Amino acid sequence: IAGPSSLTQIVTFVKESQEGDTNTTTAEQPTTCIRMAYAYAVLMFACQALGTYIVATSDMIAMRLGLRYRTALTAAVFRHALRLTTRAKHATNSGFIINLVTNDANVALEFTRFFNQSWTAPFVLVGGIVYIHVLLGPSVWAGLSVLTIFVPVSMFLTKIQTRMQLTTMKL
Asked: DSSP string spanning 130-160?
């Protein structure tokens, strides 16, 4: 929110400086305008850089946790496969074990990567909607209703695409 807020401040500041400020003398005005413009630009850059750093750090921690989790699952599957009796080895083929290691362990990795987004997304959405409502007023609800209407349309088109893809794969 800090990035768009500082951009709003820059636009407001430029607009006011073009209209002219009666509180300052003409000799002080250009210096103050330039300093404030640079201050807003630096603030906007710093906020974006800090946000990028925080998100990258969070993603790195989640990825590290996911890789450890996947490694533990892979080791557990292979440990269990080595302990199988002869009868169980004949009942279980190697493709099943490889599928557990490659596909199912990767699902656990993806879960850890996207778990934080599943609980933070509602807060981000509500915060964004409130911020846009403050800036634009009640017209935000018209845009939100259009987005809400297009969710079922998108789901319908995805189902059609999936059916077509399955049909193509069967050929």
From this structure: HHHHHHHGGGHHHHHHHHHHHHHHHHHHHHH
Cα angle 135-138-139, degrees, rounded to a multiple of 5: 85
Give CA–CA dist 53/49, Å, rounded: 6
Q: Is 30 left (phi over 0), alpha (psi -120 to 50) or beta?
A: alpha
pLDDT tens profile 51-85 = 899 999 999 999 999 999 989 988 888 888 888 78
Nearest partner of 108 among 65, 78, 77, 61, judged by Cα? 65
Among the listed residues 88, 126, 146, 93, the one whose alpha carbon sits nearest the alpha carbon of residue 134? 126
> Per-residue pLDDT tens for 150-162?
999 999 999 999 9
Number of neighbours of residue 105 by Cβ within 10 angstroms: 20
Helices (H) then strands (E): counts for the chain:
6, 0
